[in-house]
Amino acid sequence: MSEQSDAELLAAHCAGDPNAFAEIVRRHRDRLWAVALRTTGNPEEASDALQDALISAYRRADSFRGDSAVTTWLHRIVVNASLDRLRRRSVRTWVPLPDESAGESPAALVDQAPLADPRAAAESSETVREVRAALETLPPDQRAAIVLVDLEGWSVEDAARVLECPVGTVKSRCFRGRAKLAERLAHLRNPDGAEPVVPPGHGKVTTDGEGGAA
Amino acid sequence: MSESDIGGDLPPLDPDLAAWLAADTPGPMPDDVWAGIEARLAAEAPLVPAGVVDLHAERTRRRPARVLPVLAGAAGLVLVGAVVLPSIQTSSPAPVADGASSTAPTEAGPTGAEAGVVAAPAPAPQTSGGDSAPAMPRAIVSSGTDYTADTLPTQVTTLLASTGMADRASVASAMSTAPTATPAPGVGLASSPEALADCLGRLGLPPESVPLVLDTATIDGVQGNVIVTLGAQDAAGEPTALHVVTVGQDCTEDDIAAARHWDLPLR
Question: Which residues, numbered 142 to 161 in chain A, qualify as contacts with chain B under a Cβ-Cβ cut-off of 8 Å?
Fold first, then answer.
């Protein structure tokens, strides 16, 4: 079964193969999880959204027209389910407390670089919390665009297919979302109170509107 | 705020911001999450290629543990009274379609939660795309259920659970997607969106009614259809009730006259 493409597996699922769909999910589970978690910002809601999305996809598989990759289609359903939950829930933030992360691997909490210096580890862990909190403040549509493009590495074009909106809209959402994140995380850039450092040759996102990027 | 194109390519991500975002790696899917997904997928019935799903056969395969919570959920739902509309004993659909009737004291309020109401068709919202063209339901099933007036509330609740539309959230989620059921030629109202829309129109439902589920089943032992459409919505556009109609197999004038309507509040 592992030799089959995603599209072949989906066709097998539509033909009644009871195991084909689970195989597709198994292949992409970590990426789907990452998108759901980063979009909802909450492990429990991510889990629920993912389950809802995958059951929906399982049942609606015959609606897949093949005009995009199966993974794009799956991500679209997962993102929509995550956004549904995000929009429904009341305004609250989820910032993991230190003991909540006890079961996670260190790699899930800190930079991949070796962290021999405890202070560096603490700062990195704090950065994760700050980033998650800042992401929580973004409107759902901007957050989804940032998650796909800037966190998951999707191209703007592919993200547009997932989000079912024009490419320009994805760019706009990313641009505005980045600006807000940069503003809310500015203290990380300059923890000691020195002047902000703008690396040469890179556009620092500083405005909430048009322009602002070199 | 406008979401117009910013023009040109998206600028490169600020390296500091990139580094901050990269610090937050979610890691692999936790085992318990994967186990939950596997369990739910395993509990699903395999897809049936045809446009009609045989839920009767599916139900016999399902474990009791999956059925019991559904029935418990049914008990928690307050279904408005199953009232035959005496006003549609004639062939005219007007009494049902009359918008003024929706404000009659005996009828359902915004949530359709009052007991004993005459469930005249609630104003049905359009699909998310605003398209009022005839559409297939989100699900077409052949449940094998014999619906009766006394047991219909529980039966419909079970039907909705089987199709993943048991509560407000799942109905809203279903509404955010395009209809997925495919026409089943030769299966009465399931044969085309036009056939279903025509029947709904003659039943007095507004043209923009959104069909959610069509169950080609029996009603009091006679072949017919149970049609579930979107009912009332709250101010935020969230669905608060469904409208349920039982009608004969071919939606003839006699079938229309004998049709029954319910409003089913959503949890």
Answer: 146, 149-151, 156
